[in-house]
Amino acid sequence: MARAVTQQRKIINTTAAWAVGLLIFFPILWTILTSFKTEAQAIADPPVFLAFDWTLENYGVVMERSNYGRFLWNSIIIAGGSTILGIIIAVPAAWSMAFVPSKRTKDILLWMLSTKMLPAVGVLYPIYLLFIKLGLLDTKIGLMIVLMLINLPIIVWMLYTYFKEIPGEILEAARMDGATLREEVIHILTPMAIPGIASTLLLNVILAWNEAFWTLNLTAAKAAPLTAFIASYSSPEGLFYAKLSAASTMAIAPILILGWFSQKQLVSGLTFGAVK
Amino acid sequence: MGRIQLENVTKSFGNVEVIPPLNLTIEDGEFAVFVGPSGCGKSTLLRLIAGLEDVTSGTISIDGTEATQVPPAKRGLAMVFQSYALYPHMSVRKNIAFPMKMAGIDEAEQNKRIEAAAKALNLTDYLDRKPGQLSGGQRQRVAIGRAIVREPAAFLFDEPLSNLDAALRVGMRLEISELHERLETTMIYVTHDQVEAMTMADKIVVLRAGVIEQVGSPLELYNSPCNTFVAGFIGSPKMNLIEGPEAAKYNAQTIGVRPEHLEVSAESGDWSGRVSVSEHLGSDTFLHVHDTGLADSITVRTDGNVSFKHGDRVFMTPRADVIHRFDAQGLRIE
Questions:
Q1: Where is the ABC transporter domain positioned along the sequence (chain B) (predicted)?
Q2: pTM value > 0.80
Q3: Does A176 contact B79 at a Cβ distance shorter than 8 Å?
């Protein structure tokens, strides 16, 4: 009896998981499908699901009209650069918080996280002015810095959680074994934290890649990443759903592929410490 | 060489003083055991010696050289942790090699010492395994191996056996004692288990609330505990401590009688009570006697073959020559 119940429950759970998964994925699926439709089919009512004339025309038009390569390159540089910059700053920060905490460490962590609750538009004006003064407007380095700062709390938190899981006694053992701080970091802590650092890197690349508010507001032409590329196909020129979808698909494809191949790493990273 | 001297050492965490001024000398080659209930500061004391915690005031010297400000890596001490603290991403061989690598010892010498340590600790077949693939006892051996190869001035053990099961603990206790005989290196061993302290130590340091209650050889502590705390802490089963009129007869506030110093009889004796529990160990029987009018429970250690059962009336007579007497402050009266 017990076995039958478990089996039944398993089927229900699996079905529910698939349903939720499909629900979440549906907008992306719809975008991808729409990118292969003609503009007329894209706005057809009732909408067509699969039975339409598949065409690559939209992709051709998008490639012709915009320099996809340049947007892609900007996205890679900005997402990658902000992530590396963030990790360089966050590793020592998370380190000191995890292994030499002070009375205020918990407060600092919460305070850092609280900055994520601030509506970004609230600081748009001062940051915009700063960017003008510093000549950072529409530059890749400017965006790298802003995106790094935005994601820094998350990077620090994630690394902090990872480092916390490493028993302090192991680091003390290394100290007793004659390792200097540098050797302790290189030979003991980093190898033990590599899975954590990797999933932090990955998550941050995804966050930075998808970030739209700052990338749209602080760039014009030179440093514009793929978010600006998508935006350029929206409203003012009329309803071009199919082309907009083609542009969106091209923008999300790289990150979707990266996410697909690293999903195991990503999931284990995000649930790290949750179950023990 | 490993003579360790602590002079007026104190340690405070914030406003809490965990170790009031403390003086202690551990001679070269000695096996010293710090023992006390949990929270007595014994691990903190060990960590101060290791350099993993900074002293608040006072000095620590190793072999006559002041080491108070010397970082742990440079003190020439090796430590074995309760959790073993092996490096999980390294093989057993690399774990043992790590301190030598840090010391810049050449590879040929490293391998020689690894082989020797592995042979001594029965680890030869496991050198290429990761710590995760070893049992608790094997992990503990690797931790000891890692400590040996450095040829340290002294070994520090922080409750190394408390994660092992009872049978393994007895075996490892012997191995560590043998290791001490063979290496003749100073060892400082922290435990809350007074049996470990009694069986292994040359010198036992009994601590309570950061204060040294008594220092001495196991038998000194057992035969002449300086106060009621040490009297109650050292020895298993515990010494019976009796207050009131019975103690007054001996001109003391408290008298202490070890369970094995009570003669039992079914017919007559100085004290009487009812057997509550009788624990048969085969070699001995422990009787827990209630309703004596002396203390909540009196423990008697007697022959393995006595047949007292729950509820039986029993008479007990203390051996007069081995009664310990303590004054109102709990201090020993000679």
A1: 4-234
A2: no
A3: yes
The string of pLDDT tens digits covering residues B277-328 is 999 998 999 999 998 888 889 999 998 888 888 999 999 999 989 999 999 9
Question: Is residue B137 a contact partner of residue B122, using CB atoms and an 8 Å limit?
Answer: no
What pLDDT is attached to residue A92? 86
Q: Which of A48-52, A193-197, B148-152, B163-167 has the lowest mean pLDDT?
A: A48-52
With beta carbons under 8 A apart, name residues in chain B contacting A191. 89
Q: Give the chain A residue whose CA is nearest to the CA of B87.
A: A170
Which chain B residues are closer than 8 Å to A165 by Cβ?
Answer: none
Residue B34 C-alpha, separation from nearest chain A C-alpha, in angstroms: 20
User: Cα(B167)–Cα(B164) distance, rounded to whole angstroms?
Assistant: 8
Domain ranges (residues) in chain A? 67-232
Size of interface A-B (CB pairs under 8 A): 59
**Nearest residue, CB atoms, B81 vs list A169, A178, A187:** A169
Q: Which residues of chain A have pLDDT under 70?
A: 1-5, 235-239, 268-276
- Strand, helix or coil at B79? strand
Say yes or no: domain A67-232 is CATH 3.30.870.10.
Answer: no
Question: What's the CATH architecture for B240-333?
Answer: Beta Barrel (2.40)
pLDDT at B100: 94
Judge whether residue B65 has pLDDT over 50: yes
Strand, helix or coil for residue B305: coil
pLDDT tens digits, residue range A122-176? Answer: 888 999 999 999 998 888 899 999 999 999 999 999 999 888 888 888 999 999 9
Give me the pLDDT at residue A268, please: 65
B71 to chain A: which residues are within 8 Å by CB? 175
Beta strands per DSSP E along chain B: 4-13, 16-26, 31-35, 57-62, 65-66, 77-80, 154-158, 186-191, 203-208, 211-216, 240-243, 254-257, 262-265, 271-280, 284-290, 298-303, 313-318, 324-326, 332-333
Q: Do A172 and B52 touch (CB under 8 A)?
A: yes
Q: Which CATH class is domain B4-229?
A: alpha beta
What residues does each domain of chain B span? 4-229, 240-333
Nearest CA-CA distance, residue A135 and chain B, Å: 47
Instruction: Report CB contact under 8 Å: A177, B85.
Output: no
Q: Which of B77, B82, B89 sits opposite A192 (nearest CB)?
A: B89
Share of chain B above pLDDT 90, in %: 77
pLDDT the model gives residue A162:
87
